Amino acid sequence: MRRDPGALAAALAALDQAALRRVRRIAGGPAASALDFCSNDYLGLARHPAVVSALHAAADRYGVGSGASHLVTGHGPCHAALEEAVAEFTGRERALCFSSGYMANIGVIDALVERHDLLVQDRLNHASLLDAARITGATLQRYPHADADAAAQLLTGSTALNTLIATDGVFSMDGDLAPLPELARHAREHRAWLLVDDAHGLGVLGPTGRGCLELLQLTTEDVPILIGTFGKAFGTCGAFVAGDADLIEYLLQKSRTYIYTTALPPAIAAATQTALAISERESWRRQKVLALVQRFRAHAGQLDLPLAASGTPIQPVILGSAARALAVSRELEAQGFLVSAIRPPTVPAGTARLRVALSANHEETAVDRLVESLAKALDATRATA
Ligand SMILES: *Cc1c(COP(=O)(O)O)cnc(C)c1O
Q: DSSP state, 312?
């Protein structure tokens, strides 16, 4: 973007023209409204009294800011305890916590991949995984969504000495699962790293909420690098990478987004550890949100709504044009429902959609009413191109 008079204003006007301008809403936070279907607070832990109390108690004891980065003096007992809890939860030797999922993905990939290496990624991966390619300067090759054979062909055709395959576990805008068993097999055969970012599966999927890897019975051998975030099902913020001890020690030494940033506030680490424990103890939360998924899909199916093939709390309703997605979202808001319209460049052009996110905090009746309002809003906006 050049510094020409009017250039920024013209670019903004073009966004308006294409129905792509984004506006922030001043929201009350997760589940401030029973009709909020935008939040990733799948288990309803962001406002859980025990999580809030843990935050208070740790703030009283340790203050607010951590004061420094982890390798200086920012790493306190709450951080150490959280790392142990995450290692235990994921069944891996060690874990390392980052300030956000975005930083975890960038930092882990940048530590393992160099300029002449190859990064193989699903076309629909989260922006933070794709952005890691720019930072490393490595060659990025993307395969068609969820196509493990295409990923294998990229590996076969490569002469790079080091390759890393990265994929979302549950795709954040589609709600479907990556073909992890196949990717794991190809990664092993080609001695490539496999990184799975399970931001949306952890806490929700698998018999005990350990995410995609538990659901698909994959080990640390299959998937050496597991990334998770705390800002979704666990209701706090921050992220982790979990793996074997050597991997984590190497990342601790080399990962720039771990080393050169202030450690998370200790109270956030303490609240997160509590949230992790509650996600295990209150397994009804996981069961409830998955039951709501079935209810939403059954009801929406009866009304012929354009559902995607997702069995997770992320239920996209694909509409095509950005203008239509926006119109339906506004129509729903007029009825009191908050459902985000997801538009390019977050999703590919022509696949704008509503992203319904279900939570254990929702009532069955609210989900039923949402489906009915959705059907009406789709009818009312049929003429919107
Ligand atoms: C949300 C998300 C991230 C980013 O996590 P933050 O902690 O919000 O920075 C990374 N990967 C995926 C798949 C996500 O959905």
A: S
